[in-house]
Batch of 2 targets.
Target 1
Amino acid sequence: AQSVTQLGSHVSVSEGALVLLRCNYSSSVPPYLFWYVQYPNQGLQLLLKYTSAATLVKGINGFEAEFKKSETSFHLTKPSAHMSDAAEYFCAVRGGGFKTIFGAGTRLFVKA
Amino acid sequence: NAGVTQTPKFQVLKTGQSMTLQCAQDMNHEYMSWYRQDPGMGLRLIHYSVGAGITDQGEVPNGYNVSRSTTEDFPLRLLSAAPSQTSVYFCASRNSGQRSSYEQYFGPGTRLTVT
């Protein structure tokens, strides 16, 4: 069965600091992995996805994530946080059948 | 393209009332799904559909019904609202062909409060 664990329900960084949001997954099939972002009072939108091509995936707004099979991880990073990055971030994995399994989410706070 | 649209944006119901949350997409996606979002629990799948006339249960289907008469529309019905159904509801769609990357497109959500 597939599952996703996001480490840390809340992460706080200063503006200009490195953003690191952690995600570990479990999958019995070659994984498709995703990071979605949710801004306040909005739906989710795709930040980036891994579908078995390059292990370092670049997304929108300067975010990137690295697929590490040996560590079953897909951590999301951004070199320099901006106030506009404050949002909730969800890691997700392709599940069995037609489903997508979502993590519980990590809320990112950015301090001025 | 409007993408995925949901109505209403907000709704307050009394316990026992019924209502339908509307969802429509204009991307000709075969796969559509309903999720509920509750604090600290991520998104939980309620029901999903892989095409017109085909629906199936997700993780938390109790108290909800769906139907899929067209490719575009996927309404979610609350049969008899309960306070435990207070949540934010998201509809999503994606294509489901062999080349699908499983990327989902989400609507803006419906905030439902049951008193």
Target 2
Amino acid sequence: GEDVEQSLFLSVREGDSSVINCTYTDSSSTYLYWYKQEPGAGLQLLTYIFSNMDMKQDQRLTVLLNKKDKHLSLRIADTQTGDSAIYFCAESMAYKLSFGAGTTVTVRA
Amino acid sequence: NAGVTQTPKFRILKIGQSMTLQCAQDMNHNYMYWYRQDPGMGLKLIYYSVGAGITDKGEVPNGYNVSRSTTEDFPLRLELAAPSQTSVYFCASSYEGEGEQFFGPGTRLTVL
């Protein structure tokens, strides 16, 4: 199975908040990342959190980290149609990142 | 800066053919990576490199080879293409091993 697990789909109404959840396995991960992939494009870094933090806020994005449960979440406030994409959670492991399968977020009017 | 560039964008191969996927970065990054992305499966690491002359296997290296003769370039070689290698291939680079990775636009490969 995957080392990093995410739900595969999320549908949200425009203007509502989206919450994407992720569980990871390596408690020694230094950083945890959220990447965004738009159709036909590569991944772009959305935000990240250092492992000694519980929360990070960046404009409409809020990342919450629960190290005890190895749970990471990304909240997008006031979701817009441009937020429709696949969102990947990733944990750092030595020289590499380990990615989840991605959550496809669909924003409906 | 062009960032990470990949060529070609698309390719169709016949079973048993060979090809090289090109990847280059102009950010002077030491670390470079090759991933494949299959539908609903996320990204799987094929090979990675921590610097010129140094490469190592990732999760799914079988059927692929890489070389890293310069800091800038990290080509991926498929010697005997198989239908199971139909996928989208992404190259990425980073300054630090656990740092932000910058991705290329991808190569969509179909093996028939």
